Every structure is written in C-alpha cells, then in structure tokens.
Amino acid sequence: MDRQIVDNVNTITELVDHINQKAMSTRPTSRQLAALENLMALFGGVKKALRHQLQQGDEPAVAPMLLRMLQLCQRHPGITQQGLAQRTGRDKGQVARLIRELLDQGLLSRQDNPEDRRSHHLLPTAAGVAAVARFEQAEVEVARLLFGHLSAAELGGLNTQLGALRERLDQLVPEADAR
User: Fold this and answer.
1) DSSP secondary structure string for all residues of 51-73
2) Best label site of 49, 50, 79, 117, fewest CB within 10 Å?
C-alpha cells in the first residue's frame, strides 16, 4: 500500500512538473516582454507627439481621439453615431460622449436622418474640416519623424509585421468583444 502511495505521488509530481514545464515554455521571454513594453511606450509617445504638433498652431488643441472621430465623419459624410461605434469598436456611450463634445465645440453638426428619425447624420462643420486638416498635417509630421529614415522595403516589412500583430490581437479579442 505504501509503495502504491509513493508511486501515485511520483506520478502526480511528474504530471505537475510536466504542466509547469509546458507553462514555462509558453510564457513570454524577457525579450518579448521588452518588445511589448517598447510598443506600449511607442503608442504613448505617438499620442504625445501628435498633441505637441496640434498645440503648435493658434487654434485651441483638440484631443486626438476627438479628431479621429471627426476625421471618420469627414471621410464618411452622413455617418451615424451607430456607424461610428461599429467602425471604431467603441461602445455607444463613449461615442455619444465624444459626439456631444464635438457638437459643443462647434466642430460637428448633425442632421435628421429621413430614413430613421431616431438617428442623425453627422457632418463636420467648416471649423471641423479645418481641425481635421491640422490633425492630418500633424500625422504627416509624426509619420515623417518616425518612418522618414526607412527604405520602402523596410517600411513594407514593418507594415507586414504590424499587420500580423494586429491579426493576432484580433484572434485574442474578437471585434465584438472589444467593445
């Protein structure tokens, strides 16, 4: 009986060791974690650089997230609030708050949707179009700073790698769950 208990304990120990080794092999390496940390720092740096570029003019600076929403409204004239939520993956409440802020700042207007009285078509005002133009110029400057030194082949390779990373993230967090 004692031998059987010892054998069972050894079997369990071997199983636990096997599971632990498998877990260790799937843990990210320190280089992978460093790459993630660098990527997150880069995102923060890009946002900071965009804000800096936007503050250079005489016009009051508008948050990049608001400008991104406004840019979508300009690229898709008459888009609805629901359409913005679908395109951005943001929840309806957050989109509603962003739209309200853009309306309050006079950068966006809304018109009744003749097909659905519950929704409105969103259109940038003249001031909104000018704000988007400043934002796009800021994007150009930041892109030039980050990628201007890369060859076409290097930039193509970077875009391929970034696209693959986005696909992996999409597998982890499907679009419906991202909201």
Assistant:
1) HHHHTTSSSPP--HHHHHHHHHH
2) 117
Say which residue, 38 or 61, is predicted with more confidence.
38
**Per CATH, which fold does 29-148 belong to?**
Arc Repressor Mutant, subunit A (1.10.10)
Burial 101-139 (b: 16+ CB within 10 A, else e): bbbebebbbbeeeeeeeeebbbbbbeebeebbebbeebb
Tokens of 131: 């704000």
User: Measured in Å, how far apart are the chain's first and last C-alpha atoms?
Assistant: 57
Structure tokens at 137: 């110029």
Place of tokens 């992996």: 168
**SS3 for 108?**
strand
pLDDT tens-digit readout, 51-93 = 888 888 777 778 888 999 999 999 999 999 999 999 988 899 9
3-state class (DSSP) for residue 89: coil
Report pLDDT for 57.
Answer: 72
Q: Which residues lie below 8 Å from residue 177, measured CB to CB, with a gap of 6+?
A: none
Residues whose CB falls within 8 Å of the CB of residue 98, separated by 6 or more in sequence, listed in order: 65, 66, 69, 90
How do 120-124 and 108-112 pair as beta strands?
Answer: antiparallel
Spatial CA neighbour of 95 closest among 80, 112, 113, 115: 80
